[in-house]
Amino acid sequence: MDEATWLQQRRLGLGGSDISSVVGLNPYSSPWHVYLDKIGAALPVRESVPMRLGKLVEPLLTALYTHRMRLREPLVSPGLLIDARRPWWRGTPDRLDRGQGLGLEFKYTNRYQAAREWGPSGSALVPLRHRLQCAWYLELTGYERWELMVCIGHEDALAAAGWELALMGEDRVDGAWLDRLWQELDLRLYPIAPDRELTALLAEAGERFWTEHVVPQHPPPLDGSEAAQDYVRRQYPQVTAPVRLASAPEQALLQQYLTADASRDAWTGERDRLKVALQDAIGPARGIRGPDGVQANWPPVAGGAVVAWEALARALGATPEQIESCTTRRADTRRFTVDAPATAIRRTPNGQESTRSV
Is residue 20 within 8 Å of residue 80, measured between CB atoms? Predict the structure, then answer.
């Protein structure tokens, strides 16, 4: 199946990477992102470095796992799987060991994310979005075992090894080379067992989202996600009417916004105060670390360089007309603000009143 066909088929149901967004438990996505993707209205997504590395090293992690676990049968890439009873329940697991009834999902993350989201190998501390993905695949395949394998950091070594494997050929990989890589890389394995109660909740939420929103193309409630913001901006790109009087529900929205804005200001001010206090405590050190492992860092950051391209062009003799011909102008956009008179009352989280204009 080519990529275009796979993407088309993927839009006909909910996959393992979708379900955490549907239930609002993915910090990098939202129900709105899934909805727009399924109806074919999502903006193109730029692949991040971890996403690109994940694709590149998937064969490498497969080879490492196969060699380390002394598997007799090769792991298979099953492609797109579709539940016979619920065609909207779909998924593309990374690898399956059909002989043992075992599924595998491979991930890559950097050291910063690992410190926040991943625990020691074998522990239950994994990102919830990945746990839900594995739960989705366990139900889809009917398997009783799934393993989540993550490689942390070592971007350059990982990319180089991935290319080396591609050139070497997976069928001619050297065992000693794989043993050395296993020792050099930070590889962790996490067993994921079926959770019937969790699966039932995901099934209910997934079916409701699919039947109530995607099939009838009825948008979910607006949230603050980037996908929802993009949708609203695209729906109303131009101003075609003057300022009008707000309705009662709209007036309530305005007041809720002012209250939320005051809450943000209060917490941001306190966070900034604590940040400055910590920087003062760190002083000339690189950072401070508590006995519980929490660490505040204030390392040096190399200064960057900014090239004044227009000044350089003029210095080289370019005319204003030549500069103008090489200038690309951004399209007009709309800027959202809320202007509150000085007498407007905004309440902070502790109930205090604030009358500062927005």
Answer: no
Q: Is 66 exposed, middle or buried (0-12, 13-18, 19+ CB in 10 A)?
A: buried
pLDDT 10s digits, 176-192 = 888 998 999 999 999 99
Give one DSSP letter per residue of 263-288, joined into a string.
Answer: HHHHHHHHHHHHHHHHHHHHTTSSEE
Q: In 3D, which of 141, 31, 39, 40 has the Cα closest to residue 83?
A: 141
Chosen domain end from 180, 196, 212: 196
d(CA 42, CA 75): 33
Burial of 266 by CB count in 10 Å (0-12 exposed, 13-18 middle, 19+ buried)? middle
Tell whether 212 is covered by a domain: no
Closest CA to 155 of 113, 206, 123: 113
Q: What is the pTM of this model?
A: 0.75
Give the single-character DSSP code of 36.
H
Range of 189's domain?
48-196
For strand 90-91 and strand 81-82, is the pairing parallel, antiparallel, or unpaired? Answer: antiparallel
